[in-house]
Design brief:
Blueprint: H1 9-18, H2 23-41, E1 44-47, H3 49-64, E2 76-80, H4 107-114, E3 118-123, H5 157-164, E4 170-175, H6 181-187, E5 190-193, E6 213-218, H7 221-231, E7 261-264, H8 275-290, E8 294-297, H9 306-321, H10 342-353, H11 356-369, H12 374-398, E9 401-405, H13 421-426, H14 432-437, E10 441-448, E11 454-461, H15 466-479
Parallel strand pairs: 2-3, 2-4, 7-8, 7-9
Antiparallel strand pairs: 1-3, 4-6, 5-6, 5-10, 9-11, 10-11
The chain binds glutamine.
């Protein structure tokens, strides 16, 4: 793997805009690097060679004809395979969608392309986003470029690895309970989950609709800000995509965090965090205080219930969202035999089409929504969700953002947690609460373990205040060089 980091999206775009480079050459280079390296990593489920090259040539031609270059002119991007791409197979890493080719682009994809980006391909994930290791994929696992016997995290593992390994400068993932931030942390890149409603979910294959958000992976916070500015904003196709104005995220990167109050929920970090993670976390806080931020204690008393609350609400929503995969409307259908009833067709289609973790979630979610258990589980979980949101409101009365490690440990080994779903769920202990509360959260690389595995710092902000998160993350990257290390 290369020793110097490949150019950022911003640098690449500027070189292309100046005419120092051609989009077709940049695209070919990204295709060549991907062809050479991705066999060992498994980040991509599909590489759209022809479409990408055609698009890059068209961008060069438009540039030659005098068209103004967009903010992502000629930048190759990778898209998680649960985000719809017109004409490119979109499977959510599920057998049930193995042959699905969308007739439309997700809004986030359409906006990237309108800004000049070149879609290089689709990336591997846990099936429908359900997992924390990218092992629950019909395509097999993705590997962590820092240690090939370890997981990249998940569920957006392929998008994290595509950036970490230098195949593309930026990519899109989705985050329902940590699926952008956790793999970003374990792969040593930046990952942002925007506020709920900041980015349109149109074209995102739904998992937990009250939790899902699309967001960027990048090596620099600046690139994450660039991509967010392109994909954010209201959308007539998604009523939850808010009309709240989109801030100038690049303009917010002033480096100035003088007087910023950073809340630290010390009690919540007391147990179960690996010593190397805790040490990197505390050192990163010193970097931020040296730049003028101050630390304040905050309490998130309900955060310890976040995992059970998340796994009740997310599975309930999943069981409802995944009901549409019935072998009738689209997707896989079991081969029919004479005398099959409709019910048998549904059962076999879903049995053959879904993997074991997805089935577990559908059963759990159906159970918690069922007549006798709704009040005890689903309703109770919604009530605790409100308490958790109130914890954050209290914290934001005294702090401008809340800092935590992104994950309790660095990357775990492939296969290490696959037989123990509860152990896998605990990997999300620090990430799920931002989704439950709807808040934006950013993970930035903040160190390495003894065996050189990346560690992430997570910053959670006020609703729609991505600008403060990005400003702080960018300020942190001005004083550290964790993000320039390459595997
Ligand atoms: N790991 C969590 C889950 O399995 C979160 C996944 C996600 O954010 N898509 O549900």
């Amino acid at each position: 793997m290369s020793a110097t980091p490949p150019p950022t999206a911003r640098a690449l775009r500027d070189a292309l805009a100046r005419g120092d480079r051609r989009a077709a050459d940049v695209c070919q280079e990204a295709l060549d690097t991907t062809a050479a390296r991705d066999g060992a990593l498994g980040a991509f489920t599909a590489v759209a060679v022809e479409r990408a090259l055609a698009r890059a040539h068209a961008l060069d031609a438009a540039r030659d004809a005098g068209a103004a270059p967009g903010p992502l002119h000629g930048v190759p991007v990778a898209i998680k395979d649960n985000i719809s791409t017109r004409g490119i197979r979109t499977t959510a890493s599920s057998r049930i969608l193995a042959q699905y080719v969308p007739a439309f682009d997700a809004t986030a994809v359409a906006r990237l392309e309108a800004a000049g980006a070149v879609i290089l391909g689709k990336t591997n994930c846990d099936e429908f986003g359900m997992g924390s290791s990218t092992e629950n994929s019909a395509f097999g696992p993705t590997r962590n470029p820092w240690a090939l016997d370890r997981t990249p995290g998940g569920s957006s593992g392929g998008s994290a690895v595509a950036v970490a390994a230098g195949l593309v400068p930026v990519s899109l993932g989705s985050d329902t309970g940590g699926s952008i931030r956790q793999p970003a942390a374990l792969c040593g890149v930046a990952g942002l989950k925007p506020s709920y409603g900041r980015v349109s979910r149109y074209g995102l294959l739904a998992y937990g609709s009250s939790l899902d958000q699309i967001g960027p992976f990048a090596r620099t916070v600046e690139d994450a800000a660039l991509v967010l500015g392109v994909i954010a904003g209201a959308d007539g196709q998604d009523a939850t995509a808010t009309a709240e104005p989109v801030a100038d995220y690049l303009g917010a990167l002033t480096g100035d965090i003088q007087g910023l109050r950073i809340g630290v929920p010390r009690a919540f970090l007391a147990d179960g965090v690996a010593p190397a993670v805790l040490a990197a976390f505390h050192t990163s806080l010193e970097v931020l205080t040296a730049r003028g931020a101050t630390l304040v204690d905050v309490d998130l008393p309900h955060a310890r219930y976040a995992i059970p609350v998340y796994y009740l609400i997310a599975t309930a929503e999943a069981s409802s969202n995944l009901a549409r995969y019935d072998g009738v409307r689209f997707g896989y259908r079991t081969p029919l035999e004479p005398g099959d009833t409709l019910r048998q067709m549904y059962e076999r289609t879903r049995d053959e089409g879904f993997g074991p973790e997805v089935k577990r979630r559908i059963m759990l979610g159906t159970y918690v929504l069922s007549a006798g258990y709704y009040d005890a589980y689903y309703l109770k979980a919604q009530q605790v969700r409100t308490l958790l949101r109130q914890d954050y409101e209290r914290a934001f009365a005294v702090a401008d953002l809340v800092a935590m490690p992104t994950t309790p440990t660095p990357a775990f080994r492939l296969g290490e947690k696959t037989d123990d779903p509860l152990a896998m769920y605990l990997a999300d202990i620090f990430t799920v609460s931002a989704n439950l509360a709807g808040l934006p959260a950013l993970s930035v690389p903040c160190g390495f373990s003894e065996d050189r595995l990346p560690i992430g710092l997570q910053l959670t902000g006020r609703m729609f205040d991505e600008a403060t998160l990005l400003r702080t993350g960018d300020a942190y990257q001005r004083d550290t060089n964790w993000h320039t290390a390459t595997p």
